[in-house]
Amino acid sequence: MGSVRRTQFIRRSAADVWELVGAPERLHEWFPVASTRVEGAKRWVTLPSGITFEEDIVTLDHDLRRFQYRIVNNPLVTFHLATVDVVEDGPDRCLVSYSTDMEPEVLALPIGGAAGQALRRLQEIYEG
Amino acid sequence: MGRKILFVTTDQQRYDALGCNGGRIARTPAIDALAARGTVYDRAHPQNVVCMPSRATMITGQHVSTHGVWMNGVPLPDGAPSIASVLHGAGYATALIGKAHFEPVLDPFLRFTEGRIGSERRTELSPPHRGFSHMELATHGAAGPLHYSQWLREHHPEHAFSYYPVVDRELQVNAEGGGDTGAPQVKHNAIPRDWYHTEWVADRTIAWLDSLPADRDWFCWMSFPDPHHPWDPPQSELGRVAWRDLDLPEGWIDDPAERERNLDGKLRHWRAWYDGTFVSNYEAPARWVPATLTADQVREVNALVHVENELIDEALARVLRAIDARGWSQDVDVLFTTDHGEFQGDHGLLFKGPYHVDSLMRLPLVWAPAPSAGTVPARVTAPVGLVSLASTFAHIAGLPQPPFTEAPRLPLDDAEAAELGHERVLTEWDSALFGKIVRLRTIHRDGWTCTAALDGTMNHRGEGELYDLANDPLQRVNLWDDPARRALRDDLLDDLARSLPPEVLPRRPIDAPV
Question: Which residue of A lies nearest to B172 if distances are taken between CA atoms?
Fold first, then answer.
């Protein structure tokens, strides 16, 4: 199993950051993907290389500030669960954590790399 | 006008691949001719034995601890120091043609320039990328977004799938066997020679050189993807070397029991990999068990490597003729080397990984200075590293050693090696893949190779390997625990600790498998 986790402290309230991270249709605003489309509990994410992932939204908990999704109906991916948490760390700081567990394990690495870039982008958005 | 620089690299090539180094199978007259008029290094080591860290050392002139590309899959930051940037700043036209691999190859998010410019079919870069204003990139085969793959799929789509598929359906390094013996990563490739990546790299290099004004100084890194696996040269060329007629390499141990005793004398991860119980990295097929390797498979793989090495030599000869036709020959320095070696059957193994022995560490390195420089041919026995390349390029261009580099330029002979301080060479290994960790630090000095393990999954601090290369050139006898060698071992370890730059922390994360 490929298991990766990337984290980033951001000097902004958890509520503010969750406003973006907790909006699945706004993924392309902070994650290095070309486009995002959401219909109900389904999301389609297209990468800059043209690959499209179909995803099931598993958890969207605005109280816990947790978002979970799975890549589904993909000929390569046999297991996937990604979890994004925004954890309050005082009134003006939060920790954003992105983790993915995946088979084939190899794919977890570039997704982890993209998540790392995404978290740095989030930091730029909120800290300038 | 100054001296121009043709920097030629191969990928995963052994010291003994070349005729000038005693190779008896592959004919390499072009490289041998460069060696005959230049300096040949008999003890050149990489600072890491896989592609990305080693290539990062070549361009930065830094050890792995400093540039931070500690494992394949860790990208070299865009802003990292680059000797190509220094040369570009000094007025050199700069190009990299062939395999770059400073950035991950598996890049579905197109986060990295190498994949992005390939997918956009862009070759001219303004501002330059890592100092190169022209890049045309290739890797092992026709998959992915790089320029060669795009070219082949567009112009010869019937051969888009002629190459061996490097990864399997689960994106693991493919273990499927092929050829005549079922050896892993072997395929009879129907692609015509003219469209093979070795020829393409030479073609594109010649085209770039032909685009330059006669009075322009230039630095061209011509980087062949071969003889790295997969071993799938054009099948039209297979008649060059009949694998059934090949002797087994000296490093092959035919008796399985003796082979296993040899491995058991080394750090634990050797035997575990051989048995198929521990895969530390993506440099070899995870589903292939080295213990299953047969003598005939070793013969066939070696034959294919020899074929690939001959094609490289002939491609280089074409480029040298093109340089001659431009009237530049007297003013061009040619440096030829590779990023790391390959087992090719030594110790009963194929491929590469955390194994600091000559199969992977002793590299071909030839520097043929511009004839106008008036240097004298020599062989250098002193240890040198690829870490000296960046300083050497600056020296050729008449520039001071860049402050970011960590080693003096290459010496032209052994006397100069002593003057410049080439006394030892260092190699590092770190891999941490889903909880499997291997960490090694190695020094080579005075004919000894000493490797210290750091704490990891299978090895622990205080364990290691010590080889006396004068009396044990195949590195069969690990003297680490020999009381008679204790003082020597401790002296080498002290030297290693003093000489290795401190590791820049925190370590950057892995962004891809390769």
Answer: A106
The proportion of chain A whose per-residue pLDDT surpasses 90, expressed as a percent, equals 99
User: Which among A71, A109, A119, A121 is the top mutation candidate for probing chain B, defined by the most B β-carbons within 10 Å of its own β-carbon?
Assistant: A109
pLDDT digits (tens, 9 = 90+) for B397-430: 999 999 999 999 999 999 999 999 999 999 999 9
Q: Which fold has domain A2-127?
A: Alpha-D-Glucose-1,6-Bisphosphate; Chain A, domain 4 (3.30.530)
Concatenated DSSP letters for B439-457? EEEEEEETTEEEEEEPS-S
Q: Above 90 in pLDDT, residue B1?
A: no
* Composition of chain B by helix, strand, coil, percent to 5: 35, 20, 45
Q: What is the ipTM of this complex?
A: 0.94
Omega of the bond leading into B377 within 30 degrees of 0 (cis): no
Going from N- to C-terminal start, the domains of chain A cover 2-127
| Per-residue tokens: B176 | 């499927």
Domains of chain B by range and CATH? 4-252+283-420 (3.40.720.10)
**How close is the nearest chain B Cα to the Cα of A98, in Å?**
14
d(CA B201, CA B311): 11
Q: Judge whether residue B283 has pLDDT over 90.
A: no
- Note whether B169 contacts A110, CB cutoff 8 Å: no
B119 interaction partners in chain A (CB closer than 8 Å): 49
